[in-house]
Design brief:
3-stranded antiparallel sheet; 5-stranded mixed sheet; 20 helices; 495 residues
Length: 495
């Protein structure tokens, strides 16, 4: 039955998920001309009525100065009211996902609806419902950005999958610094995946229950991507930890036990500071390192030769953890490497090492010359690039490699301390001139093309030299002359 009810006798429902109603002027004008064509739904509330749905029509009718509005009157309890509101709003495209999420949560937590119930009643997939429920976990600062239309729904959901507010806030900050005010889903996936960890790389037993009190085993933890496949469809087949703080706590606890056991056996254990220095190059212990890994093959370039453990006669290891948290058994690198051959016998390894060192020095000297020539050419080419693009590229490089060389020098000029975090420079890139940005990008690009170690230059560096007219052979010849001159001057000084 439809009846006209005075607007003064109708109050709005506090449970209505929709909180933002947009501009009502056009609807009010239409109602003023044609009246309300579709009745609203109300329920009796004492002597008056409470609106169930039709809030835009009710508000526009008041704006159009109507005295009454056509209504359908039904006896409904609170659960039925909320369900009717959710179903009604689900048919509309202008309801904000956060408003819909709050309604889904109310039905789920307060009225006992399962995800399957909601999906069936609303005509939505379970993935859709799980996603909306997850949006309720957004950190306040991320909710504000989402409500301000600075985040796409898919981006907001990608952030909401992170379990802690700190992680979510970090993800939002990184997205805004790197990609501006409207990051895409691909941007968000790249950033949020960087805030998770592959559990197959964990340096501890995933089934351990006592590493961190009251946390339990990783195997049954809900903060794994594979326990929520509806939310992590892009992580298919992967088990990633979503709680970095917990992962790191378990990693540290496991290492503390291993370190204590090693010390109990009388072994030396490197401090974290000593280990950080030892594994400064990503865990690789090359000829520059004062340490060798006892499980590595002793002869460079050999895949199946004797290990350092065999060559050194199975010495007592020095125990350390590398940058991944994995335990490594080390020994001081021998000063005299004569006698360490492909099969552990005598060889001219010392001569090979000297050749390797000479090649490394030549590579570094060549790179200095090449870098100087390329920097000017690339910087000049950068002058034609939009500064916004330069800022984007510079931000990506800083995020990837931190503050080094040119970037560190620039950060200091802008007022950063010696140990300034990359975020300091990222937040101030708009203050940097296009010319300086071009130089920053150019020099950072060159550094990433090829590190001046032993061996041939990378194909990317070779191509860059070809494109910008830099002769690598001439640069190498000039480097040889410079090294020879330096050696002669040193010989004269030593004499």
């Amino acid at each position: 039955m439809i009846t006209d009810i005075p607007l003064s006798r109708i109050t709005e429902s506090p449970s209505n998920p929709r909180k933002h109603f947009g501009d009502l002027s056009e609807l009010a004008a239409s109602i003023r001309e044609k009246g309300v064509l579709v009745p609203v739904l109300v329920r009796p509330k004492g002597k008056d009525y409470e609106l169930v749905y039709g809030h835009r029509r009710l508000r526009a009718s008041r704006e159009a100065h109507l005295s009454s509005i056509p209504c359908m009157v039904r006896e409904l309890d609170d659960r039925e009211v909320l369900e009717a509101q959710v179903v009604e709003n689900a048919q509309r495209s202008d309801v904000h996902p956060l408003e819909e999420a709050a309604a889904f949560r109310a039905l789920h937590e307060e009225h006992g609806y399962t995800v399957e119930d909601l999906a069936l009643r609303l005509g939505k997939s379970k993935t859709y419902v799980y996603g909306r429920l997850r949006l309720c976990a957004l950190a306040p600062v991320v909710r504000e950005a989402f409500l301000a239309d600075k985040l796409l729904p898919t981006v907001a959901l990608a952030i909401a999958r992170l379990p802690t507010q700190a992680q979510q806030e970090k993800a939002l900050e990184t997205l805004q610094l790197r990609y501006g005010s409207r990051p895409t889903l691909e941007h968000a996936q790249a950033v949020t995946e960087g805030l998770t960890l592959d559990l197959t790389t964990a340096p501890f037993d995933l089934a351990a229950t006592a590493l961190v009190p009251k946390v339990g085993a990783c195997t049954s933890c809900p903060k794994r991507s594979d326990t929520q496949p509806e939310l992590f469809r892009d992580f298919t087949g992967e088990a990633r930890c979503l709680d970095l703080a917990c992962f790191n706590a378990k990693r540290d606890a496991a290492w503390a036990k291993r370190a204590a056991a090693a010390k109990a056996k009388g072994l030396r254990v490197l401090s974290d500071e000593e280990a950080a220095k030892a594994f400064a190059y990503g865990g690789v212990l090359g000829s520059w390192s004062e340490w060798v890994d006892l499980d590595d093959v002793a002869q460079p370039g050999q895949k199946d030769g004797p290990t350092w453990r065999e060559v050194l006669g199975n010495p007592a290891p020095v125990v350390a953890r590398d940058h991944t948290g994995r335990e490594r058994c080390l020994a001081p690198r021998p000063k005299d490497l004569d006698g360490v051959g492909p099969r552990g016998g005598t060889s001219d390894y010392a001569e090979e090492r000297a050749e390797h060192e000479a090649a490394r020095q030549l590579g570094q000297e060549t790179m200095k010359i090449v870098k100087a020539k390329l920097a000017g050419a690339i910087s000049e080419a950068m002058a034609a690039v939009d500064p916004r693009v330069l800022r984007l590229v510079a931000a990506d490089m800083i995020e990837a490699i931190g503050l080094e060389d040119e970037a560190l020098e620039l950060a200091k000029e802008l007022g950063a301390d010696e140990d300034a975090a990359p975020e300091f420079l990222l937040a101030r890139l708009e203050q940097v001139s296009a010319e300086r940005l071009g130089r920053l990008v150019a020099l950072t690009l060159i550094d990433r093309l090829w590190w001046g170690g032993a061996g041939e230059p990378s194909s990317s560096l070779t191509q860059a030299c070809k494109d910008f007219g830099v002769d690598l052979k001439k640069a190498e010849a000039a480097a040889k002359r410079a090294l020879q001159k330096r050696a002669q001057e040193k010989g004269v000084a030593d004499a």
